[in-house]
Amino acid sequence: MIRFEQVAKRYPNGHVGLHELSFRARRGEFLFVTGHSGAGKSTLLRLLLAMERPTSGKLLLAGQDLGQISNAQIPFLRRQIGVVFQNHQLLFDRTVFNNIALPLQILGLSKPEIAKRVDSALERVALSDKGELYPADLSTGQQQRVGIARAIVHQPALLLADEPTGNLDPRLAAEIMGVFEDINRLGTTVLIASHDLALIARMRHRMLTLQRGRLIGDGEAGQ
Ligand SMILES: Nc1ncnc2c1ncn2[C@@H]1O[C@H](COP(=O)(O)OP(=O)(O)OP(=O)(O)O)[C@@H](O)[C@H]1O
Question: Per its UniProt entry, which superkingdom is the organism in (predicted)?
Fold first, then answer.
């Protein structure tokens, strides 16, 4: 599903985001990317989203070469990916239902199809009864669940998350990680960038450790 072959990213100002990073992830895997601030986690995610291009090396996502794809192909690439942010970026003047529906409205799906998919996404994050509420009516953990529902509503093959539990207390953070595991069990590949080592260690998934743009560890967390 994901293949980094000696991928390097050097920013125009000379900063190096990644140094010749190589790893592969299979379809259906659950993996964490961890490392201190500046280690290259966000760079890795931005490369997968084609927000940045590799400076050298080869990066393949579902068989597509992200160093070579044209700008016109990028929207099609992003339809295969869902993204969860730390501050979920919900629209507070829209209901929960309409927040989740937004990506499907942009894709031009019919109203009945949108309703069906939003209901299914709400069910997957255990918020079926909250669709008509507004984000301000929800707790922080519930708001993050809405962010996850919005990220999976177009049924992406790959779900990326950048510090998705950064604002949550340990109990809620563990709960949100459980939601990611449920989604993964249904076949979605999940890649989460996080520096919460205590939480990651309890989850026993694959963990890639970056340090100053280099891969210094690849194995099961907590080992
Ligand atoms: N847009 C950019 N322009 C220039 N340098 C950048 C840019 N983005 C990241 N960098 C540099 O690349 C390196 C890796 O940064 P990156 O944001 O990928 O790390 P990170 O692990 O996500 O850090 P954090 O946990 O703080 O978000 C850092 O040295 C950073 O200064």
Answer: Bacteria
